[in-house]
Amino acid sequence: VSGGVRRRSVTSSALSFISHIVFCLSDVEGQRSLREAFEQSPIRRSFKSKVLVHYPESTDRMPLNKDAVNMLCMPRGLSFRTQADRLDPQFHSFTMSFDDGTRSYGFVLTFYEEVTSAQIITAMQTLYQMHHVDMDSLVSSLDESDVESLAGVSACLGCAGSFDPARDTLYVSKALCLFTPLPFLQAARQFLSQLHQAVTSHTAPPLPLESYIHNILYEVPLPPPGRSLRFHGVQGPIVCQRPGPGELPLGEYPLGEAFSLLGVDNMVQLLTCALLETQVLLCSQDYQRLMTVAEGVSTLLFPFQWQHIYLPIVSAPLHHLLEAPVPFMMGIHRREGAQRSSLHLPHEANLCFVDIDNHCVEAPEDLPLFPDQIELIQELSEVLLRFGLPPQGGATTKPATASPRLSSLVLEDLMEDRRNGNLGGEELAVLERLQALARRCGGGKMSEGEKTLGNVFEEEEEDLKAAKLNIQLREVFAGRFAAMFGRYEDFVIHSALDLDSWLSNREGTLSFDKGSFLSVQPASHLQFLSRFLETSMFSAFVDGKVISRWADREPMQQLFDNRLERERLYDTDEEESRSCRYRKCTSLFESAQNIERRLLKADHTAIHPHLLDMRIGQGRHQQGYFPKLQADVLAQGQNTNKWSSRVTASRRSDPKRSALTEGLDNEQRQKHAFARKNLRQSKLLDSSPQAVSQTHREFVDGLLSECRLKTKRMLMERMGKESVELGQGEANITGLQENTLILGLCDLLERTWGHGLQLKQGKSALWSHLLHYQAAHGKTEAPAESPGQSTTPAVLFSLFIQTMSEGLSEVGQARAWIHLALEKKMLSQHLKELLTNQELLRQLYKSHAFLLCEEEREQFLFHLLSLNTVDYLCFTRVFTSISISYRVVIIPMKKLSIAMATVNPWVCVSGELGDSGVRQLSKNTQEIYFQCKNLGRLSTLQLGQENSGLLAKCLIDCVMVYNEITGHTYKFPCGRWLGKGVGDGSLERVLIGQLVSPGGEEDAGRWTGTPPELASPSQSVRTVLGSLGIQEDMREAANNLVKHFHKPEQERGNLTVLLCGEGGLVLSLEKFLLHGLKSNRLFQRNVFVWDFVEKAVVSMETADQMGDLHGSTLTKGPPCDSLCRYVNAINASPRNIGKEGKFQLFVCLGIRDRLLSQWLPLLAEFPLTARTYEEAALLRDRAAVHSLSRILHTLNEFTITLETALVKGVDL
């Protein structure tokens, strides 16, 4: 049980193998039912239990929380049975965390003991009689049909839950529990099993039970790292082992069982949910299965550690913790016959529900795939098949009963000694008893003694096989994390000078360069990694690396770093290691051999149990009854532990190590206290009303703090401050990280709206609130049809989402609503509106809910309001299938607006996701409404007219496009004539768009956090600029294209803007070719570069036909052929795009097909150029042409894909 940070490291003071032994049984003096449902027979009810006694009774290091231990030892409470029920002992385990961050594991054996108290038997009989009378009165009050339907049920309940003292024997549950500092699952299970076997045996054990308990409490130490230890239980030796310094931490919970229950696919999906810190809820009828799966997932997280609430077993009094608005990993007991639909959970939007018994995992929506998931599943399946387990899962595992086990090690030793004649009478008697016990295990006869021993050996082999499977499965995942984060140290940022300054500025310090790390990852891994880098477990991992500059590293991080160093040392093929190809783990068999070596031959043997100084006559053996132990004997022993004193002395001899460990612990506690306000384990497990109220108060504070941090992080990311500080400029991959942060905001809002929720529709708490709010306002019409004045904006939003987003789940609709509100800068406003209906809030939420805490709620909305300072396109880019309404308005020059009556215009709007198709405007109108599939962020607009007469012309200022859903406005500047006989005679123009900021058109083009997207070239290009400035503009345009292609593909901006926009390649090249162009010799009217290109091609073709080039080779060869072919194809296009449009198309096609760098020298050397350009023109400057050709040649290595709007109608 952990409310804070989980840590596996064991402090130097944890020397003993176990720290406590606890006995739980009934509160005889005052039994109370936990569930007073009168329809349940008293035999089927649960009663309160208590801790009877625990040893040692007090300890300074680990004070025992009796209430918590009682709930975890008996999660269902005390139960009664009769001889008609199953009375097999049941084993389960749990884990507890202490306020100092250390952990302890509890191992519980629950068994049934006959009730001897006449008072309890009489009370049970009275309860049963009262229940019988209540059921009779219930049946008599029902109709005949109801009576018939209940007849069968009541008959079954009567048989199963009846109690008659004259006929039945009453049994009550009791529990034995061991606490260990490390998860020694097998050893603890065997010791408890042997202890229970001794109690139920016909003959008394060789020594009083106190001797065995005293021995394991005070005389059995922890095995040293990398060694195994043999100690003695009541009926045989027990072996446990501990991994060495270079091995994975101890993990004995059987992963093979977890994979067998759920299957490889489901386990990988579950691990993905845990890594992304979703809420994980496990469900099973078997408590040990809950622990097996939870601990299995936890061990597979290495080198990362779960940072949030960890409660693999949640008893009924703690079910309020299911409302926790934070990531958690919890397990609940499922009653027999209970269905998934009967669970009413407040948080389901980001919940991973695991039905262990039915082998099912319900993952959250849009869960990304684990990197190389297909290859990982294949490797895991191969490991399971080698051990004879089916990868698909669904296997039925053995119930967690506690059958007696014997160690094959000692049996083999004794058999060998017997054969060699080295056993005396006493030893032979011991062997005979061991053989008898083995026979009972195997069910064989005395004559089949050797076969029975073989069966026991097989059980030992199964344990060994399970241990080897465990380590191999863990090594596979450890290898995956090593491959994914092998170079993580290169991206850790060490900016603080000392630990104090780092701690004091933790929130404002960037410790990991996420953008650069993601930029070198395979594209298929980015969805997972971008979300994982935002988790608390990764932040804690990086924090540990930063702190290691001033203190020792945490053991798990040090182990991971050492493994990475070793891999780099032995990995000679650096090219192979950096490739994206999946590499299988190579250390499987080596790790398994280490485990096998320690288990097959124990390195150390603990002191044997021995007689204690006890009073004679107490604790006599009575079969089936656990004796009352002598407390004074078990309270002693701390001063007689010889082994403990030796280990303590060795620890004292290394003061440097002790000081470093202590310093590290202090700093780590300081670090985690700063990073997250811990929910103390003692408070989580306290079910008193005061403690529950305090726990939810801390949840409220945590939500507010998380909102503050998330909004701050989103603002920093959007404004690009991180990139500026790191000198990255535009190289960060903001789009992917931005989507991840917005998804995290959606999760936060869902958890906030789910806290204290008691009435919910569907899986989304926020969408449920919106539906209730909508119903309260009584508005069901779609906003597009009749947006009445009384309909609020929040309701309009929800109605639009319902109308336009067919096929989305409740969670998807809620996310669409959040994205839309965020894009419209109305998220805080709409949420505030939802919270104005106080009566609805009181109906939907419990009193401790966050939304009913007025002060915190206002601060929460204030933090969300800060997001209005930046601009988002999150709805437009994420919900691509939604239909959007657009309004297009053509704005002519004011003085010539009357000329619009003479044209018949059409438009075609294009964006990141497609185009609208040609939309014809009605005659004498300047605007059009249309609806089409979401086009994404708009980039270009084709504007044309059908009338080709000389009077059909108009000077267009710009075209405005309005997104009626998101409220965004796009401006497409033009500044040119549309019509024949004016300008370049164009009847169609391709305009480049810019997003107008919400502040107004006077700030057009400003888009916070992204580079400005400027307009189509204007008539200002006619001004002849200085040659140096023109060449600099050309280099800048080419450089922008190079930077564009060096960004990750999903983060690149609009290529059309870089080609055709202000400062783009087309405009820069046009300036270059206009420099020094003579205007009054060959051509009339305005001067256009296309006139020169067209004339040059005609002259080339004519000269080539007449052979009038005086031996020149200019017209021969592919460059000349391609130039002529492309120019002729552009002229032959049915589109009337004018001379500027043709030159733009000429440049775009040339750069796309890697021909432009060849065409430029060709044009420069042609004889026509000398007559057309002045001597000082750049095109006649060999050095300038050569430099420009080289610049254009560098662009040939990139694959350029042009928008359809640019190349439509040209077949090349």
From TrEMBL:
It is found in: Membrane. One of its GO terms (molecular function) is small GTPase binding. CDD domains: PLAT_RAB6IP1, RUN1_DENND5. GO terms for cellular component: membrane. Keywords: Guanine-nucleotide releasing factor, Membrane, Repeat. Pfam families: dDENN, DENN, PLAT, RUN, uDENN. Residues 640-650 have a biased composition (Polar residues). InterPro entries: cDENN_dom (IPR001194), dDENN_dom (IPR005112), DEN5A/B (IPR047278), DENN_C (IPR043153), PLAT/LH2_dom (IPR001024), PLAT/LH2_dom_sf (IPR036392), PLAT_RAB6IP1 (IPR047277), Run_dom (IPR004012). It comes from the Eukaryota. Residues 736-882, 1056-1207 form the RUN domain. Residues 884-992 form the PLAT domain. Residues 640-669, 999-1018 are annotated as: Disordered. Residues 31-552 form the UDENN domain. Belongs to the RAB6IP1 family. This is DENN/MADD domain containing 5B. The gene is DENND5B.
